[in-house]
């Protein structure tokens, strides 16, 4: 039998998302629940992939199956596509596996042509409606399928409205719309040199192909990259019988969430427009009514709507985001999906659904995306400063958060300013999908038009960016790049602040304060901690970072980098003196000056961490980072060392390296200059003994040797460390337990892990270097190269951000499997950037590491990712 590409809604269900896309699978599920869903069929994501890979053509098989499905649909509908008297109209809708709101394209009212539009007018006795539908269809088809910009049509429509004195499109008469239709067809003809296609079958196939191609449009690329959606997934196409919200005052269209997507409150949040179609609500053509108004306008429809919405939430056991249309008093559901929500809302909904008995704590843990927690870990307004500030005006609290920055009026300028280091607030009349990169670069988004479900609001919530929408008091002058609010005029570059939780707008730069984990967040994180088997540590170099991480739930430090401890002004000079020394004695003398500082730094960290484990890495960066650069620095150094500037420069030239990242760094420094390792080991251990005594606690330091590739290298440095530590114990008259281990970051170390494990008491995978060296791709130069690779679909994601399980992961797995038999109690962790990336955390769980370590702000993310890994792959 040939492959099945096309499924009637009645043949699918919610579990078939991969094949039918989210929209198609849920339309099928709703159909099977007996809900009022217009009939239709879905062309699978597999067809999309084959289309895009196979020379952008629909195969005969696909076309045949579409024909058969269309026949069935016509039978269900009781009318035929292109029928001159009673035409069937359909929508052609995109729908990927993961929802990508507003990113891809949809065509409505397909099947209209110069003949069938007249039939529709007669049949419905409503020519206004028929021509309203036709002009919309021409515009959408031209835009989506042919690529004639929508704005060409919109501009002419605005001009026409002005000519006849119509404020809204609802003020246009049937005659007007007939004229608009003619104008639109002329625009099409002028642009394309041929008439608007009249054959409905051709319209249908062309539209389906356009949806497949829309998977390839630039904004879809950007969205996928931001949301880790692989290109290979493809989109499905849904062909669905039209129902009409634009048939008059007893018709309308709307969108609703079963709970508040901004706060999580259990209250229906919805908006609708009378006598409107499709995107009108989201696009902000007119300001919509709140759903509560429907109870007054059409009480029966409202009751039915509430009943179905609640039924859907109970069925999916999650907050639903729904689209509906009312056609002459009859309600239809056009879409449902698990709604996008802010992190705060996600936590509140998860916790409350557990309290309501709708879901278990395990289910709740899977409801929140770990990455989303990031939104909650960032600063909020300083309450005192906020109180003192005076609000200039108020919009809708579309996406919470505190944002302060400079005003920019276009997405491009916002992006450029953010890249130049500014905090940016993007101010727009309304946003559109083209604005996505500018929105992502902004601290906050402010729009003049559009409701709680407008494009700006939905996208901002998805990104976790603060957004205040629909502030109609704003007088915008787009040409002059200014706006006026509360009697004050703002130009590009002026500061404003937005409070996304209240909708308040302030004309100043309000300071912010650190976030805290309390309330639902705390409850939820406790569930995560109870579940996970991976421990979560942090990478912290200072007592302050250590404290932030503890507040965020870190259980220890997986990496303290010691290099920053050398960079303070007086220390770096001493260190330079050390590098430029000619004898061991000179070097030791120079280092002696640094040791007390290091010891104090370590004491601060131990004190913050109490008895929690602390891994300290010996000096790692290449020597060249410490070299004097300017004439002034050379002169200063000459004064300190008694050497001439000329001598120092010769010495510096001698130390110059062509490729420092693979040069004199890590354990190689300790091999050349054992004094450095000695000084550091002494500082680490003296600090540990002293804090143990002062605080009456028991510290077990973990000393980590970086960049090992060969067992003898490790032995050499370890011996220096052990000898030094023993001397400290003798001098102090007190012994502590301690561990000496290594980073696994050079492929050779991973490959010879069984040997390395004979000396190393712990491994910490340094996946930044391990990735760099496995790919042979310098981290410092990777940016440009990787973006080309990702654009050309050679890499799906950036391996420096998300662990490459296939290659780098294989080395890690190998190392774990080799090391364990040699040293069964070996302690295993990861301290690369990947330690805070959920997908990478899951991999660490799978290969049996003991802990992940990440930056303080990612600790809660790693805690949740670890819990989700345990839920899905118990170990
Ligand atoms: P998106 O994924 O961008 O939301 P949709 O495919 O959901 O795109 O469609 C865009 C708009 O058109 C939505 O408001 C939807 O409800 C409406 N729509 C889609 N198909 C139909 C239909 N068959 N009848 C009436 N309205 C429709
Ligand atoms: Mg939709
Ligand atoms: Mg490294």
- Based on secondary structure, the structural category is alpha/beta
Cofactors, ions, other ligands = adenosine-5'-diphosphate, magnesium ion
Count, helices: 35
Q: Give the radius of gyration.
A: 32 Å
Contiguous uncertain segments of 5+ residues: none
**How many strands appear in the DSSP assignment?**
33
Task: Describe the structure in your own words.
An eight-stranded mixed beta sheet has the order 14-24-23-16-17-18-19-15. Strands 26-27-28-29-30-31-32-33 form an eight-stranded parallel barrel, surrounded by seven helices. With 875 residues, it is of the alpha/beta class.
Comma- or semicolon-separated keywords:
elongated; single chain; 875 residues; eight-stranded mixed sheet; alpha/beta; 33 strands; 46% helix; 17% strand; binds magnesium ion; binds adenosine-5'-diphosphate; eight-stranded parallel beta barrel
Write a short abstract of this structure.
This protein is α/β, with parallel strands linked by helices. The protein is built from 35 helices and 33 strands. The strands form seven sheets. It has an eight-stranded mixed beta sheet with strand order 14-24-23-16-17-18-19-15. It has an eight-stranded parallel β-barrel with strand order 26-27-28-29-30-31-32-33, surrounded by seven helices. A five-stranded antiparallel beta sheet has the order 1-2-7-5-6, with helices on both faces.
